[in-house]
Design a protein that fits this description.
globular, Butyryl-CoA Dehydrogenase, subunit A, domain 2, single chain, about 45% helix, alpha+beta, Butyryl-Coa Dehydrogenase, subunit A, domain 1, Butyryl-CoA Dehydrogenase, subunit A, domain 3, 3 domains
Amino acid sequence: MDFKFTEEQEKFRKEVRDFLEAEIKAGTFQPSCDAWIQGYSPEFTKKVSKKGWIGLTWPKEYGGQGRSHIDRLILTEEMLRYGAPAACHWFADRQIGGGILRYGSEEQKRTILPKIMAGEAYVGLGLSEPEAGSDLASLRTKATESGDYYIIDGQKMWTSCGVFMNHIYMVARTDPNLATPKHRGISEFIFETSLPGITITPTIDITGSTAWAEVFFDGVKIPKTAMIGEKNRGFYQVVNQLDYERAGLERLMGNYPLFDAIIKFVKETKWGNNYISKDPLVRQKLAQLRTEFEIGRLLTYRVVMVMEEGKAPNVEAAMAKQYSTGFEQHLASLSMEILGEYGQLMAESKYAPILGMAPHSFLGSKGYSLQAGSTEVLRGVIATRGLGLPA
């Protein structure tokens, strides 16, 4: 079998690389870790939009390019390789647009999708709550019917893209009946964050990033047309959309700039009279890391091939995400080990090696096995749905 990309696909990869290298040279951005979720740059998102690279796989009838999931894989891979600041459009492009295409109304497809593709709708993810993190079905935020509107009351936390979003995708309980199973009675919504009653409070994580936020809803009045899909079926719709969130290469390559930098560092830096790369133990550990990376890459490619067949990559996405976050954590730990005490210096220090990426990655990596489904949840998916084991 020939596992190579086609000539056209390689041409597209070169086009993306040339674009990104030109933007770096122009000073638009500097490669950084976790830029897909923390790199806020409306300017960059607008440039990506002009290239037609937002909504790449979406149908042409709604303004998309109608291209393959493999093309989008190539685009994503290069964006992550170069640490491009794509946070403004990442979530909308990765899962919200697809959710609207699958479950949304025709009006939503005609109004929201063009805003996303134009780089104008920055959509945050309102899922987790103070007492409903991994257990999404336990959420308490309410959406109460009132004529042609819903009134939203409640709180979301760890809202991805929360600080710079102008739209929020969120789930709320629309069936107040306590006798209803908690997985039912939940609905999906998308609306602008400029509405009265919405308060956004930045959440500063251990790395100092403010890419997340707490969002409070106090009697927020939204039209019924803001609901995505079927009332009280939101949980089941979310489960499908999470497959695409978990399947993303960002779970493997979110810290690729560090991976690239640490390899260059050991080749160019000496311990005593020899370069660090000459140390057999360092060479062996980096070789092992490279092997782990390639395995994670193939697992992600497998997800994309399932998507190309028109299937939901449920088990495959769980496998890819569970494995890839382990790689990211290994990368962070090994980088700190190689850099020694200097590895503790953050980017603010002029003595920090490789722009302080190592401590940023190390501190952030502790949450990777929780975000988008904990390791335990994903192993449960693999066991029950993949291997057919009893719950």
